[in-house]
Every structure is written in C-alpha cells, then in structure tokens.
Design goal:
single chain, 682 residues, mainly beta, 22-stranded antiparallel β-barrel, 2 helices, 42 strands, 59% strand
Length: 682
C-alpha cells in the first residue's frame, strides 16, 4: 500500500482522482511496483479511476484524448493504426513512441493499442520520457492500465446497452474470493455498431464493427510477503475501415465516401502474464513474464475511388515473449533505489500483397522481422534535507533486429513468380544509454516542486515496405526532455493543481510516408523540438460535486527537415500534434429522499482539440473544435440505469486528412451518438 505522501502526490497529479465521492463500485488502490514507498522521485502524471472512466463514458483508448493534457489518440482508418501522441511525441506507423502496459504486460505494435476498456480499475498516463525504468520506445511517456484484483474487489455484474446506429453492448464479469488467499476473476464483453458513414459505391457502412473480448485471472497469496498472479486476455475485432471521402479545399466541402472494394481490418490478440511479487520489510522483488500473440488481416482499396487501381492485403502474425525482474528498497529510509533487467524476443511474419488491377499484375511480399533486446536499469533517490530530494537514473538498452525480405511480381492469372525476385537479408544492432536527473522539494503541506532532465530513445529498424536501397532502414530517434513543475493543494485539498512546463530537443525524428499502392516508409528528419505547458485542476467544492479541468499547449515544429533537394519543411509544424487540448468535466450527485431511487448522478464534459496540421507541408489542418458529452446515472439498490450522449451539439470536425494523386481525402469525426444501458450488481 502506498504511503500517505505518495497518495498525496498522486492526488495532486490526478485532476480526475476522487477520494471522497460515493461510487457504485469499491475503490481499489493500485500500487505501481516501480514506485518507492517514499515519493522521492517526481512524476508528471494523470490518473483516472474506474469511476472517472464510467462518468465520462470512456469505452476506448481514443476517448482519453483531451481528458489528459497534451494526450492525443486520433480516431481514423482502423485499429491497424492507433497512434498515440504525448507532448507532440508519437508515431503513425509500426511501433509506438509511447509505452503501453496492461497489468505489467507491454504492448509494442501500434495495432495492439486500441483495446476494450471494460472493467478497468485505473489508467495512469506518465508524460515525458520514461526510458530509465520502462525502457523500449517510451519517448513520449507511459500508459499504465490496471484491472481489478479479485483479492481486493469482489463483485458480479451484468450490463446491457443500446444506442443509435444499432450500437449494442453486453458485458458480464465476476470477481470472487475463493479463499482468504485465493481469488479468481472472469469477464466477457461484446460490442457492435452498424457504423456512421456509408460507402455509396458499395451501399455498406464504411466503419461497421464487431468486437469480442474476455479476461480471466487467478491471484494467490501463500504468505503475507508473496503474491502470485496469472492473467489471460483475448480480444477479437472485425471492422470495416477507412471511411475516407474526397475533400474540396477551396470550398471546404466533403464529398461522398465512394470506393468499389470493401475494406477492413480483423485482429486477434491474446495476452498472458505471470507475475510474482515479494514485499519484505526492507526489499521488494518482482518477476513479470508475458506472452502475446497477435494475428491481423487488413484489406484496403488504396485508391479510394470506384476505379480499380490498387488493392492491398496485409496478413501478419506476431509472437512476443518478455521477462522483467525488478528489485527495490521497501522502507522509509532517506535512500531509495530500484534495479532491474528486461528481455524481449519478438517475431513478426507478414504477407503483403499489392494488386495493381488496372496494370494486371500483383506483387506479393513475404518478410519476417525477428527482434531480440536486453536492458538493465537503475534509479537512486536520496532525501538530501527535509523535503528536498534528488534522483539519478540510468538504463542501458541493446537490440538486435533482422529482416528476411522477398518480393515477387506475378502477372494476373499466372501461378508462376518472376524468376528473379527481389530479396533482402540483413541485421541491425542498436545500443543506447538513457539517463535521468531530477530534483524535488515536498513541503510540509505536501506541495511539490520539481525539475527533471531525461533522455528519450526510440529504436531504429527495417522498413516493412522497401522501394530502393536508400529506404531499407531507418535510424533511431532520441530526445532530451527538460521540465519544471509543481503540484499544489489549496483549501485543505479541496482544490489541487498540477502545472508543468517542458521543452523537448528532438533529433532524427522518425517520419512516416504513405505511398499509394506501396505502403508506409519511415525516414528520419534532422532536428525537431516540442515545447509547451500543462495544467490540471481538480476541485471538490462540496462532497457531492466534483470539477476537473485539463489544458495542454504544445508547439512542435521541424527545425531541420529537408525531404529532398526541392522539398524543405524547416520550421513547419509537426503533423498530428494538437496545438491545444482542453477539457472541463463536472459531476454532481443528488440523494432523493425516497425508497425507489438511491442517488442520481449528472456528469458533463466539454472537450476541445486543435489546431492540428495533417501533413508535413502544413497545407491541410483542422481548426480548434469542442465536443459536448453528458451522462445521467440513476441508482436504485443493485440496479444502475444510464443515459448518455456524445458530441451532443453535432460538431463537424475532421479526424484525419491526407493527399492522394493530387486529391485531398478526409475522415469526418463521429456525429451525435446516444444510448442507454442497465447494470445489475449481484
């Protein structure tokens, strides 16, 4: 359990974290193992618990955008691409620049990040490079998700919901304590939606989706010092995707979605983890073993017209095995430390086929990308004097990557391949030190002031698409992050604030280019930077009224980026990075004096994003826009009845825009959606 000091720090860092509210489920404190008992190392973090997620009706990762300052996860295309941007740091393709963990299990591929959000106990977002403790590709920050522990939370629940566009939700979960030291949980979730956007060429919805997921976990505490947990999670989704329509920039009008071949993405993910934790009087130890299997199949009419030009299929499967050992101090002494080691083995096999229909030939490509990596890390924190403490951390990462690539050219109708296929086999090795330095001053009133300098690193690798010898590989990117901040409490904790200013010096930024009929190619820019401010305010004027405000400002630009002799993007804004993220959310609970209704909770949120540039030449952009969401929950005994609405004002906005064959294409944001649900707790 966290100490009072750490709990205070987390509350100040979390504008949505409420501790004195009446809630429908038992509050569960989740302790991150990589945090020491004494909060000597500062964090720029926001945390949302299960109540927050329920009140804001967050059902997917992408709906966290604007609820957390400078956090942006655009909703476009399909789940094959789910980029995450924190403080302007992100990646549109391949691996994420933000670390993503569920119960300690890492997720690395960008198509594995948009997941079902049912039965989540908490989500914590750490902003800024977290490479010292978390390592691989944590340049922008960390998303740390925890599910409920059956030893700490017991409940059985059934939920059914229905909304417009035939939106159907069915959930069931049970958390049982089989004995004083043994717990078991199981849950299942189904969701489907007929889609908001119609492809006029096929008459089908371009964004229809069905998804299924299930989780199970066993927890066992043979003694007071040891705890073991085995968890298994499976997720399957089948969606139509890519609702891109022609955009007339001059008149600012959007045409129809109209392409002749149905496109979509299917994904199956299986995650399995085994953890062992020892908490002694002076030392704690953790072992985390995980195995992830992912199978994906993408089909896309990549000319996005009724003319048969290109059709791309990409089938892949990936196996990832990780092992991490962490040892740390577990006392209240002035010196706190953490050491650890991490290992990863990953293999991804792809079959990418591009059919050039009009030209009557096909190019199937077979490639395999095995990766192995190893890291060791250490962090020391020391309480220098009263509330003043210093932290120094260092991590060493080594990664070995290999690529086996073979591409054929086949005439339409032929079963024989070209006698001279293009082949490529090579190896790459990367190593990097990631240091961190910080000073923190914690007052007797638990106000916190800090300064941090940390290095971010994202590994290089092989491109999945190769068109010439010049773009077979891309180089690592790295950054230095400079940050000052404070976490303050006012009026005995009724108001808490979290303010930070940051500057990121970014070198060799990895840029994704999409070539129609070919695929995504990563290259490196020379020099970029990102700077801005983040503010979170949480207020509890009275015990049944809560208000949270979040604001983030990011100015991210290319300082040195010459794509070619004729194309210079110096001092252009970095695409996919909102200049502003804004959210104000409030909830109020009434307690009617009647026998039928126990309480009624009203919640509403106004969330804003923009301005966003969509491409490197800054020709396309989305101006700042606001979305209004609301929810009402009526509780009576074991029943909850909910009514919710999203984008209630029907705001028109774009979630993505790109250029293709001298034409512009956009995906519109979702219009008004609404629904209702009933929950029964046994």
């Amino acid at each position: 359990m966290l100490t009072e000091i750490l709990m205070t720090s987390l509350m100040m860092a979390s504008p949505h974290l409420k501790t004195d509210s009446v809630i429908n489920i038992k509050e569960v404190t989740v302790t991150e193992f990589k945090a020491n008992r004494r909060s000597l190392a500062p964090l720029s973090a926001n945390k949302m618990n299960a109540r927050d997620l329920d009140l804001q009706n967050v059902t997917s990762m992408k709906e966290l955008s604007t609820l957390i300052p400078n956090f942006y996860m655009p909703d476009y295309g399909s789940r094959a691409n789910s980029p995450i941007f924190i403080r302007g740091i992100g990646s549109k393709a391949k691996t994420s620049a933000v670390g993503f963990y569920i119960d300690g299990i890492p997720h690395y591929d960008i198509s594995a990040l948009d997941i079902d959000m049912a039965d989540i106990a908490s989500i914590e977002v750490l902003r800024g490079p977290q490479g010292t403790l978390y390592g691989r590709n944590a340049m922008g920050g960390i998303i740390d998700i925890h599910t409920f522990s059956p030893l700490e939370y017991q409940n059985t629940r059934i939920k059914i919901g229905y909304g417009n566009k035939n939106d159907i939700t069915a959930q069931a979960s049970s958390y049982l304590k089989l004995a004083d030291n043994l717990g078991f949980s199981i849950s299942g979730n189904y969701h489907s939606n007929d889609g908001f956007f119609t492809n006029v060429a096929t008459g089908k919805k371009a964004d229809k989706i069905k998804e299924y997921s299930g989780r199970t976990a066993f927890e066992w505490k043979p003694t007071e010092l040891w705890k073991f947990r085995f968890s298994s999670w499976i997720d399957y989704s089948n969606q139509n995707g890519y609702p891109y329509a022609v955009y007339d920039k001059q008149s600012n009008t959007i045409g129809d979605i109209s392409y002749n071949r149905t496109s979509g993405f299917k994904r199956l993910i299986s995650n399995n983890g085994l953890s062992a934790v020892y908490n002694g009087s002076n030392i704690s130890f953790s072992s985390q073993t995980s195995y992830q299997f992912m199978n994906g199949s993408m089909n896309i009419d990549q000319d996005f017209t009724t003319a048969d030009k290109y059709f791309v299929t990409n089938d892949y499967h990936m196996n990832t095995l990780t092992q991490e050992f962490t040892l740390k101090s577990n006392n209240d002494k002035r010196y706190q430390w953490i050491i650890g080691a991490f290992g990863l083995i990953q293999k991804k096999d792809n079959v990418l086929t591009t059919d050039y229909i009009a030209q009557k030939f096909s190019m199937p490509t077979y490639y395999s990308d095995p990766i192995s990596s190893f890291a060791i890390y250490h962090q020391s924190s020391y309480n220098i004097w009263k509330g003043l403490s210093a932290t120094v951390g260092l991590r060493f990462d080594y990664e070995h990557a290999k690529k086996d690539y073979k591409r054929y050219t086949i005439a339409t109708g032929s079963t024989s391949a070209d006698n001279s296929p293009y082949t490529f086999n090579n190896n790459l090795n990367f190593n990097q030190f990631s240091p961190k330095f910080s000073l923190q001053y914690l007052t007797t009133l638990h106000n916190n002031y800090y300064v941090t300098v940390s290095r971010g690193y994202k590994v290089g690798g092989f491109n999945e698409t190769i068109t010439s010898d010049d773009n077979k590989t891309y180089q690592p990117e790295y950054s230095w992050n400079y940050e000052v901040g404070s976490k303050l409490r006012f009026l005995d904790g009724k108001i808490t604030t979290d303010l930070s200013l940051f500057y990121i010096d970014w070198r060799h930024q990895q840029i994704t280019h999409t070539i129609p009929g070919v695929g995504n190619i990563l290259t490196n820019a020379g020099h970029s930077n990102s700077k801005g401010v983040e503010l979170s305010v949480s207020a509890h004027p009275i015990y049944n009224w809560n208000v949270g405000l979040s604001y983030g400002y990011t100015y991210a630009e290319f300082l040195d980026y010459k794509q070619s002799d004729k194309t210079n993007y110096d001092h252009n804004m970095i695409p996919m990075v909102p200049r502003n993220t804004f959210g104000i959310n409030s909830d109020y609970t009434l307690y009617p004096k009647c026998n039928v209704v126990d309480r009624i909770t009203f919640s509403a949120g106004l969330n804003g994003t923009g301005k966003i540039y969509w491409d490197e030449n800054n020709a396309l952009s989305q101006k700042f826009y606001l979305l209004l969401n609301a929810k009402v929950i009526v509780s009576s005994g074991k029943f909850n009845w909910e009514i919710w609405g999203k984008n209630i004002t029907g705001t028109d906005y774009q979630t993505y825009c790109f250029t293709l064959n001298n034409a512009y294409y956009v995906q519109k944001g979702r219009p008004l959606s609404f629904g209702t649900s009933i929950t029964y707790n046994f």
